[in-house]
Amino acid sequence: MQDWNPQLYRQFESERTRPARELLERIPLDDVRFATDLGCGPGNSTELLAQAWPEAQITGIDSSAAMLEQARERLPNCHFLQADIRRWQAEQPQQVIYANASLQWLTEHHTLLPHLVDQLAIGGALAIQMPDNLEEPSHRLMREVAANEKWQALISPQAADRKRLLTTDRYYDLLTDAGCQVDVWRTTYYHPMADAQGIITWLRATGLRPFLAGLDETQQAAFLHDYHQALIPAYPARSNGQVLLAFPRLFMVAVKTG
pLDDT per residue over 207-257, tens digit each? Predict the structure, then answer.
């Protein structure tokens, strides 16, 4: 798959940063010396950490070289590392491990989350936000269009294989069993878009990437046309002409107590 496109990702930076900011506000810590942003992207979430704890050593982790290049330009005083979150090992115990809209791309959460808790200092916090939108029309219709006979031979079934999140109860048990006090909540954001094409612009930077990865430019345009036609009736115009993109997200803040 091609590398992430930071410019495309940042077209909706304000909307993407809002849940990151709300996650940060629920971390009950003041004295933070070491903090890591897992899946830091172009640095918009890392910047929030640096503003919250200006004296802390802030590290951003991402698998995308293009994203890290922009993050380094944006935040020259932070440290950035290209790495796989699943294999990341902190050099010293962290007061904050922050994962905003990154862990949903990874599997094996039942082992990943306890591993991340192990990287925390006592009293440290693991803060997670993940989109929980696989059953929203925006994502369900990606899979339905890709399953059409026209596209089956061109789009791998694995393109639609973003793993579903565990149940909220399961996450709670995982984190409490790992020795944490857990705050968990879910928020649905409603983003006004000019039209259905705006939804495509948003998702080309994220959810649509696996579906487009194996297609050439002509095929991509054709797939997006079919997807657009499916979106139009699913997102009817409101009274002001705009459409509303519903975007549920799951939040967790786990403070290590022992």
Answer: 898 899 889 999 999 999 999 999 999 999 999 999 999 999 999 999 999
- pLDDT at position 254 is 98
Comparing CA positions, the residue from 99, 9, 83, 84 lying closest to residue 45 is 99
Calculate helix-pair angle for 217-234, 137-146, nearest 10 degrees. 130
Instruction: Select from 51, 39, 178, 44 the least CA-distant residue to 105.
Output: 39
Could you tell me the strand order of the sheet in which 120-131 lies? 79-82, 57-62, 34-38, 94-100, 120-131, 243-256, 180-193
Contacts 24+ apart (CB under 8 A), 191-195: 191/12, 191/15, 191/244, 191/245, 191/247, 192/238, 192/242, 192/243, 192/244, 192/245, 193/235, 193/242, 193/243, 193/244, 193/245, 194/241, 194/242, 194/243, 195/237, 195/242, 195/243
With residue 149 as reference, give the H or E element that holds it.
helix 149-152
Q: What is the pLDDT of residue 13?
A: 60
User: Which tokens go with 218?
Assistant: 């002509």
**pLDDT tens digits, 60-89:** 999 999 989 999 999 999 999 999 999 999
DSSP letters, 63-107, are S-HHHHHHHHHH-TTSEEEE--GGG---SS-EEEEEEES-GGG--
In the chain, the amino acid numbered 184 is V
- pTM here is 0.88
Q: Pick from 87, 84, 80, 4: which is nearest to 47 by CA?
A: 80
Instruction: Determine contact, residues 71/43, Cβ cutoff 8 Å.
Output: yes
